[in-house]
User: Fold this.
Amino acid sequence: MDLNTMIPELLSALPLTLAIMFVALIVGFCLALIATTFRVRRVPVISQLADLYVSYARSVPVVLQLFVAFYGLPLLVSLFGVEDFLSATIAAMVGLSLYHGGYLSEVMRPAYLAVDRGQHDAADSLGYTFRQKVTRIVGPQAVYIALPGYGNSIIYLIHNVALVMYIGAADVMATAHLVMERDYNQYQFETYVVLAVIYALLCLIAWLIVRFFELRSSKFAPKAAAPAKITIMASV
Assistant:
């Protein structure tokens, strides 16, 4: 086996890897928005449930979350009379979405709270609703603050997609192991180097996209207060 044979085989599994990643990005972002909204507004009971969800997502190893999704969801859907519904790919999407949403919520909430309290008070004094305050005043500033952390969360997600092989999803990592086993593990180093390049490129693309939005949103950066001028009058 040479690189001309190995690389196309690995790239053939890349669409599934990207599909799992994009679903987790989109669903996780929606979950993070919902969880963050309840956590900052402190709605009784619901906010505590959101805190519990975020604690679970951040405290439990990702591979265990994937196992919980893979073995737990069939038991859950069977209560509604649904059988043979869950595949390894769907379980991977669900598990990574829950992980990404909980992790990202802990990026959004501090960013929202980091906006100067005067901005919140000004929006409240103008009679803005919570939605108007977030979209017009606080949100743009919070987005600028949250973008570096959001970029890190995307990179962590890309890394953790490699774990879906443990529940049987045929991603790039699983395909690489199949290729190595087929060739009696003779080309492990070459295969892992190709994998490293693939994941590094994915992370680089993610970083460039986030960096682009960071530069675009820099106009919403919170302005530092001007230093006070001290005038010393000499006594005559």
Remarks:
- Residues 68 and 122 are 45 Å apart (CA to CA).
- The mean pLDDT is 83.
- The chain has nine helices and no strands.
